[in-house]
Amino acid sequence: MNEQFLDLLAQKYDTEEKVVTEIINLEAISNLPKGTEHFVSDLHGEFQAFQHVLRNGSGTVKEKIKALFRDVWTDHEVNDFTALVYYPEEKIQLVKGDLCNKQDLNRWYRQTIEQMLKLISFASSKYTRSKLRIALPDQFVYIVEELLYKTDSTNNKDPYYEEIYRQIISLGQSDKLIIGLAYTTQRLVVDHLHVVGDIYDRGPDPDKIMDTLINYHSVDIQWGNHDVLWIGAYAGSLVCLANIIRICARYDNLNIIEDVYGINLRPLLNLAEKYYTDNPAFRPKLQSERHGSEQEILQITKIHQAIAMIQFKLEMPIIKRRPYFNMSERLLLNYIHYDKAEIKIGGKTYPLENTCFATVNPLQPEKLLEEEQEVMEKLLFSVQHSEKLARHMNFFMKKGSMYLKYNGNLLYHGCIPLDEEGNMKEMQIEDKTYSGRKLLDVFEYYIRYAFTHPEETDDLATDMVWYIWTGECSSLFGKCEMTTFERYFIQNKETYKERKNPYYHLRENEEICRNILLEFDLNPDHGHIINGHTPVKEIRGENPVKANGKMIVIDGGFSKAYQSTTGIAGYTLLYNSFGMQLVAHQKFISKEDVLCNGTDVLSLKRLVDKELERKLVRETNVGERLLQKISNLKKLLQYRYMN
Ligand SMILES: O=P(O)(O)OC[C@H]1O[C@](O)(COP(=O)(O)O)[C@@H](O)[C@@H]1O
Ligand SMILES: [Mn+2]
Question: Could you say which protein family the record assigns here (predicted)?
Fold first, then answer.
């Protein structure tokens, strides 16, 4: 081992005792059971449902409460306490409303704090004291530790402990402490969170999800196609930008663009008012609780058309300058017979309905009007100068990737593009071809390049980000084409079909999944693939666990727009020291419902894989690093102190 390295290490561990203590500490930690990993995906802006799943640890919190108090509590009491752990601020207010008498309230405080401490002690039993300390509310660490670690079996200190409780209550600290302890519990039940893509689009609050993740204690993200679309917009891709605005208009979410990220839509609205009128194909999908005026809806309908047409135009030069994208069939504005209002697709002619081609010059359909150009430039400027968006997109870069190898498993959002025979599908980019892992790596390279060069708007990297949203070899899209245009303008639904990559039927096959794991240097006997992106249609009997347990599809199904086709509100996955469990969630109604009626989203657990022996920290990614550190410290001990 390099002596210089050991000298550096010796600066931190400058006595034999320090080295020895650290070795003992790390050895002990690596023999603890592995922490619980929590997998979620396809959140699609549904912050309320997401935060509920996060707060209840996909059912883990309730499970712990039941295990502790089942024998002494009724279901009602369990539900009440569980709601307190999930939403402490709100629940305390409700309790205060019920208990008007001060004595009763103080008794409730005394009891509740003690119960919370029991729960924490139970939930932290597989962690070190120092890990628990980090999770405790800062201002109360000292007294909480006193109460947690009472070791006095002689009862000599009983009055001392009682006094601590009394003082907390009389000094008016109970609310704060209970709230702090509730969050500690939430934090303890999940050690690490994986978000397997698609935080953005369709639902109303992706920004709140991002803020929650930024503050979360331990998280990684596998980018989804929708996330990459937002990254692309921020990185300077005008066509990605047009897409995110179009989707926000379609789902009546323009306030995300305007109010949340502070992007001025006025220029786009002016353009929309000038060229477009009402159009049934472009009315927004309304959120049920929304109370928009007719006039507002009309405005959105116009913006929706304006930005969709800009998008269709902007796609064309990219398709032309990148022949290897193999997308010439998507040069749709070229295939329109404008006088007859018809289009020829795949050799067939279809009539066009609800057209809005006022800004299209049939001789040069891809050409943006000067006004359109200006609008896009202003929008891009605004997007790239939104501080909040910058914060969220930077977080994507810091914690996100195309795929992740973690504790022997492979995580990605969409697919590994395959051909019909199950071979890795090849894509040509300039004069090279890529497939499998190399293809995903090169996609990630381009995304990162585009992100760090936001001023370049039509270079290969920027075009590539859009390709990853919609191209046939994209591992995030996984389909041959995106038929957005057809769904707006053609009645015949046969044109809406988006052919899926063969991956989606081949992934049922164990051999295929084993090959994919091997492609990523993972052990196919132990590893699993964790996949998001496609809603599992439980209604039709689809099983989220495929390929003899090698493939687990956990599209969280949080997206309300898709719940009628899935039949449930989706899946999440837990992986603790005992094994993997899939959790099926019922539709989340509201936080209020949980608080007042004690109803919780029913979570049915299904065992996916059971560890033969309890899995320890030393067998995990983190453990690997610990073992490396131990080995370095042992060398230091030899080199410095044993000679
Ligand atoms: O239902 P919408 O909002 O029109 O979106 C449909 C589009 O979304 C996609 O399904 C991609 O989104 P997902 O990643 O959520 O599947 C496209 O394939 C399709 O064209
Ligand atoms: Mn997706």
Answer: Belongs to the FBPase class 3 family.
